[in-house]
Amino acid sequence: MWFMTSYLLLLQWILFQSKCLGETFLSQSFWEDAAIMDYITEDIYFEVLYPEKLRYTYRLRKARDFGAPFIRQLKGVRLVLADPLECCSLPHNALELEGAVALVARGDCSFVSKAVKAEEAGALAIIVMDNNIENDELYIEMVDDNTDREPRIPAAFLLGKSGFIIAKTLIEAQQESAIINIPVNLTSVPIHKHNQPPWVIW
User: Fold this and answer.
1) Beta-carbon contacts of residue 127 (< 8 Å; ≥ 6 apart)
2) Rounded to whole angstroms, how far apart are CA atoms 127 and 110?
3) pTM for the full model?
4) For residues 136 and 121, what is the distance between their CA atoms, to the nearest angstrom?
5) N or C: which end of the chain has fewer CB within 10 A?
């Protein structure tokens, strides 16, 4: 039942975002919300260990001015979809998120609000995927919302296409979580050997 509900929610989210994407991209608020930037040295990576179909290394853009730094590596930690995906209120699956990394969708509330709710659910970190499911190259710089709230968990941004494929794969396989390592050190690894997903633009 949980997987069917999640699948329906995911489909509704995809349809809604596809309908609104054009006007959102052109609106002034889109650009005020966060800045789009190219590669920066502070970007971090995580790797999926399971399921095998998702076994790639994914690049993340750390939140600019909120959340804790990614200092301690989380090995073999669960990556769990928040329900609802936007994570603007305490997730219905808070029990599953406890001790895991929350994967949430951009939209409906600030990045800080999402981090606060994920932290309240017991998540160790939060990854926010873009709500543009076709986005395979533009990284958003997540910024504070000036509400004086200070989430104490790390937060980072993931490309929409990668987030969508991860979410879709887990739901179709009826798996509650993926197993990941975050962050992974690729400092001495040439970029062409990063094992990035084939759908990502290099």
Assistant:
1) 46, 60, 79, 101, 102, 103, 104, 155, 156, 157, 158, 163
2) 13
3) 0.83
4) 29
5) N
**What element of type H or E holds 16?**
helix 2-26
Kindly list the structural domains of the chain, giving each domain's residue range(s) and its CATH number in brackets, ordered by start. Answer: 2-193 (3.50.30.30)
DSSP sequence for 130-160: PS-TT-SSPEEE----SS-----S-EEEE-H
What is the enclosing helix (H) or strand (E) of 29? helix 28-33
| Residue located via tokens 């050997």 | 193
Mean pLDDT by 10 residues, the chain (202 residues): 53 51 42 46 91 96 94 96 95 96 95 97 98 88 92 96 95 94 87 83 66
* Residue 105 in tokens: 């969708």
96, 176 Cβ separation under 8 angstroms: yes
Question: How far is it, in rounded angstroms, from Cα 3 to Cα 88?
Answer: 21
Strand partners, 120: none
